[in-house]
């Protein structure tokens, strides 16, 4: 029996074939084939079969061999194809490529997703990150506008606000950055969105660095 995530994924795949930079193709013999969306149609890809855990290594480094601390950054490596036999394996692989994003997508689809404003996230920091709460609104505009931008920053669609008053996360980002129906990769295709319900730890660190002048 399919779980909630697998059921939602199955329905989502009737209308689209992509999540982030990953193209998903149903195979005639059953199962699925995943690849970088830029590599669709290529026949010379390195093939990985029936092991969703392969996604862990495939998502760890970019094309230049640099470690990817942010899995939703638009720098997923190329030249691979991952073949999976079941929807369960597909769900597991996607969760390795984009940790937690399918669960967030399900919560959003069922109107159960709670978002957390940036200021609230910063106010609850402790230790070396406590200073991040002192960041100014102007600095937030610049930090979020640079770190979270889709072209070179992060492919997530921002759902959180700057504060409890509902102020936009950054005036430096286009309105499409906050639209779950917009393809953040720029391909202008229907896709399963990578939703961001709260500021991540990496953004918190960028806020700390801005306050410290690093």
Task: Summarize the helices and strands and which ones pair or pack.
Layout: H1 4-12, E1 18-19, E2 22-26, E3 32-36, E4 46-49, H2 54-58, E5 80-84, H3 87-97, H4 101-109, H5 118-123, H6 137-147, E6 157-158, E7 195-196, H7 201-212
Parallel strand pairs: 4-5, 6-7
Antiparallel strand pairs: 1-2, 2-3, 3-5
Could you describe the 3D structure shown?
It is a single chain. By secondary structure, the chain is an alpha/beta fold. The chain has two domains: 4-99, Gyrase A, domain 2; 118-212, 2-Layer Sandwich (Alpha-Beta Plaits), CATH 3.30.70.2320. It has helices spanning 4-12, 54-58, 87-97, 101-109, 118-123, 137-147, 201-212, and strands at residues 18-19, 22-26, 32-36, 46-49, 80-84, 157-158, 195-196. Strands 1-2-3-5-4 form a five-stranded mixed β-sheet. The protein has a two-stranded parallel ribbon with strand order 6-7. Strand 4 (46-49), helix 2 (54-58) and strand 5 form a beta-alpha-beta unit. Helix 1 (4-12) crosses helix 4 and helix 6 packs across helix 7 (201-212). It is globular, with a radius of gyration of 18 Å. The relative contact order is 0.16.
Give a quick summary of the entry.
The protein is an alpha/beta fold.
Main traits of this protein?
5-stranded mixed beta sheet, 2 domains, alpha/beta, Gyrase A, domain 2, 7 helices
């Amino acid at each position: 029996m399919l779980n909630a995530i697998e059921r939602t994924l199955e329905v989502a795949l009737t209308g689209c074939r992509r999540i982030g930079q990953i193209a998903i193709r149903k195979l005639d013999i059953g199962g699925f084939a995943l690849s970088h969306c830029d590599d669709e149609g290529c026949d010379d890809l390195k093939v990985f079969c029936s092991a969703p855990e392969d996604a862990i290594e495939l998502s760890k480094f970019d094309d230049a061999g640099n470690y990817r601390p942010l899995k939703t950054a638009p720098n997923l490596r190329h030249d691979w194809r991952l073949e999976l036999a079941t929807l369960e394996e597909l769900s597991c692989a996607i969760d390795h490529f984009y940790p937690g994003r399918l669960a967030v997508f399900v919560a959003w689809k069922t109107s159960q997703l709670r978002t957390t404003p940036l200021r609230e996230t910063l106010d609850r920091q402790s230790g070396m990150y406590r200073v991040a709460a002192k960041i100014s609104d102007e600095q937030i505009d610049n930090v979020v506008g640079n770190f979270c931008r889709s072209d070179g920053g992060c492919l997530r669609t921002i759902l959180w606000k700057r504060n409890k008053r509902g102020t936009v996360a950054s005036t430096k980002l286009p309105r499409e950055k906050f639209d779950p129906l917009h393809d953040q990769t720029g391909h202008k295709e229907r896709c399963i969105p990578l939703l961001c319900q709260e500021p991540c730890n990496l953004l918190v660190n960028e806020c700390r660095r801005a306050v410290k002048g690093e």
